Amino acid sequence: MADSAPPTGLGARLKFALRPKKSRSRLAKKPPPDHMSLHSEASRPQTAKSLHYHDGSMRAAPDIIDKSTGERTDITALMHGLQDNSESGEQAYYIEHDNHRSPGEPLVASLPSDLWARIAAHLQLADAASLAFTTKLLFQRIGPGPWENLRLEENRQRRAEFLARLDYSMPDHLLCFPCAKFHLRIQPGQETLKPPTVLNPLFECPNAQNPLLPPSRIRLTSTRNLPFTFVQLVMRAHRYGPRYGIPCDELFRRWKDPDSGWSHQTRYHVVKGHLLLRVVSQTFATAGLPPSGQRTLLFSRQDYSPYFSVCAHWKDGELTNLCKCALNHLPKPQTGSGPEQQFQRRIDTVRKASAPLTALRAASQCPECRSIRRCPECPTEYLVELKLAEDKSDRAQMFKQAISVTRWSDLGDGTTPATAEWAACRGDNEAYDSFEAIGRRAISGTFESQTGDFIPGQRVRSLNPKNQKKGEEGHNWY
Predict the structure, then answer these.
(1) What is the Cα–Cα distance from 177 to 202, expressed in whole angstroms?
(2) In this structure, are residues 434 and 375 in contact, taking their beta carbons and an 8 Å threshold?
(3) Measured between alpha carbons, how far is 246 from 268 in angstroms, rounded to an integer?
(4) Would you give the end-to-end CA distance of the chain in angstroms?
(5) Helix (H, G, I), strand (E, B) or coil at 177
(6) Phi/psi of residue 299, each to 5°?
(7) Rounded CA separation 149/143 (Å)
(8) Residues 6 or more apart from 93 whose CB is under 8 A from it?
(9) How far is CA 169 from CA 165, 174, 368, in A?
(10) How far is residue 62's CA from residue 138's CA, in Å, rounded to a whole number?
(11) Alpha-carbon span 224 to 208, nearest angstrom
């Protein structure tokens, strides 16, 4: 008997799930009912076992089933029963047909080699090589052409994409994208993220000193960066197990830049197969700074980049203007020698002496610099805040006003540097639209929901609302 076709539509699936089942019990004649017993059962009051009270309404118990027809009198139990029968019937159907399914090699062999070659010609080079790598029969039909094309120097990126699909079979190796080869890990499981001034090889690479093939990395701060190899290790350990990489907690860092006075801390979380990054940068700020003082506080004198963490599109947006706007909201100290100024200074002195911890208050910001800003060209969000921070080196005034810049970024799934999120953060993916790709859920909210300590409540606005891309030609960034 030929196998029946699998149910496709919703009606067919319900009909298949609700089909009558074969009875396992034989029919037997029942004695005639006793009228007295029926009368006594009908006159017996209903107990709490036969009735359920839920939300103030009375309904029949789910275990009440008509013995003659098998019908359930409870609607809720009936719906659950329909769902269970549908799922179990469909699962049993497909399991039964999978067990009796004929092998696919004769079907593959029935098609000529020219047809398989035309099918492979319509695929990407990495996909065609993966198809030829599936079985020996497909390799005989397609031939070694896709693999030979992957060896060419111009197809280095395609070769790396193909090798990235073999990560699960290489736990002791790590894919090097500049070489497009697997290299043996020097210290498996002991890899540590270090500053760029420290020599930290993870494997022996012949292109380690080649300036034409630099390894992919993103900028964290003016003195730190994140190589893509550590994103690989974290995501491999998350997907395949601890033998393939390192845990996410190994990337947490906290440091202070002695030249600028900025302190930084980084944290990472893996959410739905993507690695999320948060960088919090903070420094003490003085009220009433002139524009030159604000630039000295925010920008490095070496390359004129911000001391805090930024993406590759920070010059095109309003990020630095938001920081300057927040600095202008710092309360200025009372000046002058009039009676009102002297009286106010005396009040401030008494408050600081009586309650030094509560005398200062965090400055309030305007709605323009208080909102979370999202870069429209990459999955990155920023939040500029004014906080009170403790300065342990100053005994006279331990609590001071500080400016804090928080960055959240989605670094992608860690398979290749060509993924949309990683390439967008580096500025290599110009076709990325963050508002369309991310949607309404903010990266900051997704990240902070993993810990529950703080969830930003501000609305998300565009970092570049005018969509101007001037770069170095524009002067608003400085």
Answers:
(1) 13
(2) yes
(3) 13
(4) 79
(5) coil
(6) -110, 150
(7) 12
(8) 6, 7, 16
(9) 9, 11, 51
(10) 55
(11) 19
At 225-280, the pLDDT tens digits run 999 999 999 999 999 999 999 999 999 999 999 888 999 999 999 999 999 999 99
Q: State the DSSP code for 306.
A: B
Predicted local confidence at residue 348, as pLDDT? 61
Q: At what angle do helices 319-328 and 291-298 cross, to 10 degrees?
A: 120
CB-count exposure of residue 355 (10 Å: 0-12, 13-18, 19+): exposed
Single-letter amino acid, residue 123? L
Of 203, 145, 144, 148, nearest to 179 by C-alpha is: 203
- Reading the block at residue 84, the tokens are 């269970």
- In the block, residue with structure tokens 């609302």: 465
Which string of DSSP letters, residue by residue, matches 184-248?
Answer: EBSSTT------TTS---SB--TTTT-TTSPPPEEE-SSS-EEEHHHHHHHHHHHHH-GGGS--G
Strand partners, 263: 256, 282
CB 376, CB 435: distance < 8 Å: yes
Nearest 5°: the CA angle 408, 413, 418 is 100
- Tokens 């290599």 correspond to 428
* Alpha carbons 425 and 65: distance in angstroms, whole number: 61
Q: Specify whether the CB–CB gap between 308 and 276 falls below 8 A.
A: no
Nearest partner of 223 among 190, 193, 196, 188, judged by Cα: 196
pTM of the complete model: 0.73
Alpha-carbon distance of 2 to 469, in angstroms, equals 65
Inter-helix orientation angle 156-164/125-132, to 10°? 50
* Contact yes or no for 406/385 (Cβ under 8 A): yes
pLDDT, tens digit (0-9, with 9 covering 90-100), for 21-77 = 554 445 555 555 554 443 444 444 444 434 343 444 444 444 556 666 666 556 666
d(CA 227, CA 246): 14
Is the pLDDT assigned to residue 423 strictly greater than 70?
A: yes
Query: Alpha-carbon distance 359 to 369, whole Å?
Result: 25
Q: Answer yes or no: are the C-beta atoms of 278 and 447 closer than 8 Å.
A: yes
Sequence spans of domains, the chain: 105-151, 247-329+364-473
